[in-house]
Amino acid sequence: xNVPFQSAAILGAGLMGRLLAVxxxxxxxxxxxxxxxxxxxxGAAARVAAAMLAPLAExxxxxxxxxxxxxxxxxxxxxxxxxxxxxxFFQREGTLVLWHRQDATxxxxxxxxxxxxxxxxxxxxxxxTLDGAGIAAxxxxxxxxxxxxxxxxxxxxxxxxxxxGSLLATLQASPNVKLRWQSPRAPADFSPGTPxxxxxxxxxxxxxxxxxxxxLRGVRGEVIRVHAPEVTLERPTRLVHPRYPLxxxxxxxxxxxxxxxxxxxxxxxxxxxxxTLPDNLPAIRQPQxxxxxxxxxxxxxxxxxxxxxDAAMELLxxxxxxxxxxxxxxxxxxxxx
Length: 337
Hints:
Blueprint: E1 7-11, H1 15-26, E2 30-34, H2 45-48, E3 52-53, H3 55-58, H4 64-81, E4 90-91, E5 95-98, H5 104-120, E6 128-131, H6 132-138, E7 148-152, E8 156-158, H7 160-173, E9 177-180, E10 200-203, E11 217-227, E12 237-239, E13 246-251, E14 255-264, E15 273-276, E16 283-288, E17 291-295, H8 301-318, H9 322-327, E18 331-332
Parallel strand pairs: 1-2, 1-10, 2-9, 5-12, 10-17, 16-18
Antiparallel strand pairs: 3-8, 4-8, 5-7, 6-7, 11-14, 11-15, 12-13, 13-14, 16-17
């Protein structure tokens, strides 16, 4: 997509900042990317995320607008990954949902939620019910351990750290990109559209944008990464539990990302902090001319990032965003900010 301007400053080199920088540079725009940290993205939630692309599974906690964005993103990810400088692990082997007998009531409740989502978003592949044999056919190591399960076809995952690294390598190789590490910036540091200044400023700092976006809250997500050569899993697997939504996402090299916790907190110590808005929905707003803010990716960052990327690009190119409206996501422009 072409954009009607020549330069942009992007604040924040997490997942969204890197995706936007690559996309704008590919469109011929001169991009300066400012990041308070280092190229390793050690402070970004994207570095520790499980990077599951599971719109139907996430509908247990996500509204329909996020589910639609996640479904859209599943087909966009291969297109975004193809031109990057380094290969990135990506798969669409579906999601397996399992439970122990004592949690059958909670599993039945979840199945009702997923079925309702299927009627609201009929383009999603329908979930399938599994018995022990069906589970064993998908994951032989689990077939004797669980008698019932659900399978959500077409859902996927990618390698988050490989993606961040490949985006970085692509940016480093681009003549249109200047990378500014250890360089924290805020929108007020620029006068976009004036001589010597970028045409646009795009704020992708996540929770770092809180001084300019008071509604942002910190939500802490914690995961562990385990190397287990003796374990074989082919797809993300979720365990139904009334209190702990446990998941295991297998990555290349017998590495497994395991997560269960989500705590509202501003604590920035390891493992991670993500930003969210009061309604837990992503948002794009233009608080003033030539300044765009993108935030609220919450727990769904990798799942919805391509949808937010395309919506932001449409807004930058045309000043309005039909794509965002198709998802049911509101955008706020200068006129109604």
